[in-house]
Design a protein that fits this description.
alpha+beta, elongated, single chain, 3-stranded antiparallel beta sheet, 85 residues
Length: 85
C-alpha cells in the first residue's frame, strides 16, 4: 500500500481461546471497512491477536486506533457483564 505513511501493529496476548476467538470474530467485520485511505487487518497467531492499521497520516492512524481500542473495550466490558449473570 503505497499511500500509507503511518502504520501501527498491535499485538495482544490472550491465553483464553474463547475470549480471543470472540474478539477476533467481533472485530473482523469492522476492520474490513476501508474509509479515507485507512486499512486494517486482524489475525490470530497462536495465543496472540494481531491488528495492523495503515493510514495516510498520523491523525487518521490515531483516530482509527482509538476507534478499534474503544470497540475492544466495549466488547470486553460486555463479556464481563454477561459472565456475571
Amino acid at each position: 500500500m503505497s499511500n500509507s505513511k503511518a502504520v501501527l501493529n498491535l499485538k495482544f496476548r490472550i491465553e483464553n481461546s474463547r475470549l480471543r476467538d470472540t474478539l477476533y470474530k467481533s472485530l473482523k467485520p469492522e476492520l474490513e471497512i476501508k474509509l479515507r485511505g485507512i486499512q486494517a487487518s486482524i489475525e490470530v497467531c497462536g495465543q496472540e491477536l494481531l491488528i495492523t492499521i495503515k493510514a495516510p497520516d498520523y491523525s487518521a492512524l490515531r483516530a482509527a486506533s482509538n476507534s478499534i481500542l474503544r470497540l475492544m473495550s466495549m466488547i470486553l466490558n460486555t463479556l464481563g457483564e454477561v459472565s456475571k449473570e
